[in-house]
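In keeping with the milestone schedule agreed at the kick-off meeting, the structural modelling team has produced records for the first pair of proteins. Each record is given below as a sequence line and a structure-token line. The laboratory manager (R.T.) confirmed that both were archived under the project's standard naming scheme.
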Amino acid sequence: MSTNVTSAQEMLAAAVAARGAEDPEIVSIKRVLKLLDKTAKSNRTYGSANPVAQKFSHQLFEELTTHLITYSKLTFLVQRTALLCKECVVYQAEQDGGGESLAFKLYADGIRELALQQGLTEEDLGFFLDSLWSGLDPSKDDDDIVTRIWEKNLSSISIVTAEEVAKASVGNEGFFRLDSGMSLSDSTLRELLDRERSRGRHGDTGAGEADGTTTSGSAPRNRFQSGLVGYEVTEEELATLAREIEAESKQDGLSYILDAMTSILVSETSPVLLTKLFGLWGHVVDTLLREGKWTVLEHVLSLLHETEAVRPDISTEHKQQLTSIMDGLGRTERIKAIESHLNQSPDANVEGLPTILLLMKPEAVPALCTLLANLTSSAHQAIVVEALTHLAKDKPDPVVRGLMDRRPIYVRNLISILLTWNSPKFVEPIEKLTRYPDAQVRRDVVRAIGRLRPTGSGLRLVPLTSDEDESVRFAALKLLMSGQYTAPFTQWSPLLSDNDFMDRPISERRGIFQAMRVSCGDEAVPYWQGLMTAWAWTNRRKKEELAILAAETLGKLATPAAIAALERGSKKGSSAVRQACSMALTQTVKPIQEPRAGTHSTEGEPS
């Protein structure tokens, strides 16, 4: 059988309505193309160096690599408003999205089929994304996607162009010959073109005999055919157009106004009217912020960002108006509008909000800190934390000042930002929070000290071993027992002389003695010796228990001073203490004869 190339494409589109359940490959292709569209727009709007654009590009590469590993390639036909694969629509342009869709961009530049092959590198993908929106070289804005891809000549990206289809149609007298019984979904457009070229090289007399023409000699076959590729509009396509018109007529007022303003922006030449128009765009930004329409606002900002490229003729005054709109995104009153909307609508859709916040200038950091402090939803707070992590890195003063705030959740969020930056210079302001009223904040302070200053002075940690919250005490003890911190015995004395010290669990008292052993060493020997040799008239059982713990600790210390104290205790102490000292002395023989390893060991003690 024979069929026109364009008819073959129309048959693929018409088969979409009859397609049943999607197979996994189609589902994967749809997911990849949706992310490709989002990434391309992000790169086009904010530039490939923007954190948001880089995040989308990395996600796209991972998703695309997974698909290519599974299915070896990703191929789709390109139509004006849709992309097709295996007779399925895998990408459809949004009816109310505005701007150029991925399908229209490819179609307008003459691409009729695109294939991404296994082996596509992240560099190849970056080149392709830049090619979509003329991002490679400003001096080559006239080059279309086809020209760029052909110049690069990548083995991982192949295309079929409208020109190739047209030439093949003319060369074959306006039609392709397809083998009988072959499904269009079994072959790509590239394979059909290659097959027809092969037939053209070897000749095909069968067709000529069938229609009364010849393929050789002086009389050409089908001489009255023009060779042009045409399009027929089917009833189904007419119905689709009618639905699109109906949807456009139901467009909401905001979208209609934005489309009208966009048309004016592109075409208006009057400087006075353009000045008024840019003033209106500022009001649009305010309205969208108040109503929480983040995705629409993202589209508006993208449009304004591209204005100079679309309208290179605008005046310096108008460029300043544009800059004012973009730079004023983080004004205090606008961030206050974000706060009001989020707190009034805890379950509001926040898609697009992270991008809006990341587009703000570092000057917005103080206002964003206020926003973080006042938000009530933890999910909303996480979005602002991510934005501050990027925007405040070079201007951290507002974040550091916020540590003195009395709202625990806000302070904990600020500590998490400082931990992300991972700079030792932030440990000093964090250490000032060791007496913060909230126990969770104090626990975060201990964690921050361990992260930002893993060695050195333990002066700030020792008082925390007397904290009223058990989790804080054990967190501080864990760090001090690591042997990475030093603290003089005078720092431990208030803790040891406290009346409640002997009432603590034996495991906690043992941990304190081990922390003293590794942080101040021989300085604590006189104290431990006094415990072993002192006569107890009151609390005899608890004091004897403490003396036994002292003997165990001296045995692990195993310095000459510790051994001398144990020998004295083995003679002067009570019966239980003398026994503990003798056992500790037997454990010190090996450390004396050989170099001691694990001086700062924190392994468990026998009961």
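The second protein of the pair:
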Amino acid sequence: MLRYSLIALLAIACLIYGLAFGTVAPSRMMPFAVPLALLFGLILWCLPAGEYAPTRVLEPVFLAFFAALLLWPNYLAVAIGNLPWMTVLRLTGIPLVTTLLACISISKTFRTTLSNILAADKVMTQLVVALVGLWTFSLLLSRNPGMSINHYILTQLNLTGIFFVSCYLFSRKGFAEFWVRAFLAILAFICVLGIWESRIQHLPWAGHIPSFLKIDDPLVQKLLTPKISRELIYRVKVTATTPLGLAELLGLSMPFAIHFLLGSYRLFMRGAVALYIPAAFLVILHTDSRLGVVSAFASGLFYVLVWAVLMWRQQKNNLIAPAIVLSYPALFAAFMAATFAVPQLRYKFWGRGSQQASTQGRIDQWEQGIPKIISHPFGHGIGQASPSLGWSTPGGTITIDSYWLSVLLEIGILGFLVFYGLMLRAAFVAARTAITLRGQPETTLLLPMSVSLITFVIVKLVFSQESNHPLIFMILGAVLALTYRARQYTDAKAVIAPGVSAAGPRPAHELISRR
């Protein structure tokens, strides 16, 4: 009897689904994808257990997503009717997260490995879980559920899913260094495009876009229009949607470039980054972005401090490292004084008189946003920062300039503490692991990762765009994975008997399957 009742209920639900689809489609298609997504998730959950999980697929799809994130303008997409834009990020991100879920459902070995990696720092893992929970809870507070659900799905694909995939992939030997090399190589190519763009004063592909990638949307047309500053300076953006987004990306790359320049790497690699650093800074100047200059200098200053602490710990007789650490407060104060005393530094850091309008705009946004935060301490819902703030430019565009303010408006005060607590905790764990757990060359990559996360927190005070956030969640996953590997390596060395060669037992991290 129960079986027939369930079949009848299913038939009624399908009838209602079909009637609703015939009534409102194609103007509203997305709600009808929810049952199909849930059904697909149920199929993944019911897959039989075994060791046939497609773990080998994760790496190439992840690298495709990574390349698309940096190289492909996200506004070039296929738009069919009222369906969401078919961007390259979605075409790579959805298969990537689907493969991850399949691996979790099928393979016990995969689940065990991922669980062990997440246990490398339980505080970070708890903060990630709490953040996902707050994003989910905020859906109940949204005044525009459709917009919030769309933003929530993209967040789970591009941030949460990428974090868990990164935890697994970065635990593989050699992957972290390969990722950093690919990151810098791609950005070097972007710098070449940026210099070219600054010479021709427009995007190189503007006017050469195939018809099937053209989207008839005012926002897209605005993105393709040359961006000119108030000083009549052309502002390059290459594959980013804004010059600020490109400046942020290049600023976040600086710690990695400095690391390769100062580290024990081959002469060719050090020479390559020695050319990349001035090229990247030149492109940052062509973006006419203060945040890019600040992030580049902050990356250098923070990296020098962490590097000096590491050298002081490793080389007790080194006099340069303790001198840098002990004199660092004075050096930092002198540099900040120079940003006020030296005209060129003052203009790049604090802006000219013509840039005071944007500074005043950020101040006005905070003054307008604080009462809204107090009245809604749990937020207004994910994706609702700009509508809830209601601040618009003189041209009538609703916008928000600070991601600190965005987080407070979307998921509240607790969400702000969780989000930025996660970033600072990861930076601390990365620096602590690199300084205290030595042995593997890849462990030192945690130094630039720590500095990049700190720079990200600083930049987000004045920049709200989320286009580079998947990169940050890759770094978060890498921090956990490399911390896990460093501890496995240290534990393996500790149990080697005094008379046994270190080359005998293989470290546990090398036993991780490369399926």
